[in-house]
Specification:
CATH class: Mainly Alpha
CATH superfamily: Winged helix-like DNA-binding domain superfamily/Winged helix DNA-binding domain
Number of strands: 2
Radius of gyration: 19 Å
Low-confidence stretches: none
Number of helices: 6
Shape: globular
Strand order of the largest sheet: 1-2
Strand content: 5-15%
Structural class: mainly alpha
CATH architecture: Orthogonal Bundle
Mean pLDDT: 90
Helix content: 55-70%
Largest sheet: 2 strands, antiparallel
Number of domains: 1
Distance between the termini: 34 Å
Order of helices and strands: HHHHEEHH
């Protein structure tokens, strides 16, 4: 039996949590001049990849609940980043799209993010796509483990 203290940094979950905090801080610095939060930026990226989308689709892409994203989208509409309107196909459905005027600003942000990714890649001496692939593998494995544990609880 070991008598040494178990440090938080010895835990993988703490390491991932800390990494997430550092990314939030880094992106907050980049996004501050645009009056955007990290989550608002993630929503904009999710919407940008679609011509028109729905709240449900954004929720699925970001793996977040409707009640988490509704106020975020309302703020982005108020800030003129997004447009929310009735679907031409089904008037009961609301569609969300990027305001055309915000596209140029979003591209400017993406260029700054690309530069930061380049700097990070130089620090780690790994290409960004390899870092993303490693992170995606970790996420997939954690999701699989969660599902296994959920099924064992049932």
């Amino acid at each position: 039996m070991s008598t040494s203290a178990h440090e938080p940094y010895d835990e993988l979950c703490f390491s991932v949590y800390t990494t997430n905090r550092y990314f939030h801080r880094l992106y907050s610095q980049l996004l501050q001049q645009y009056d955007l939060t990290y989550l608002q930026y993630m929503v904009l990226l999710a919407v940008k990849n679609e011509k028109q989308t729905t709240l449900t689709t954004i929720c699925l892409k970001l793996d977040l609940a409707n009640n988490t994203l509704t106020p975020v989208i309302k703020k982005l509409v108020a800030k003129k980043w997004l447009i929310k309107e009735r679907s031409a196909k089904d008037s009961r459905c609301l569609v969300i799209s990027l305001n055309k005027a915000s596209l140029k600003t979003l591209e400017e942000i993406r260029e700054k993010v690309g530069y930061v990714q380049h700097l990070f890649s130089q620090l780690t001496e790994l290409p960004i796509d390899q870092l993303i692939k490693q992170h995606m593998t970790l996420n997939a494995n954690l999701l699989e483990l969660n599902q296994k544990m959920d099924s064992e609880d049932s």
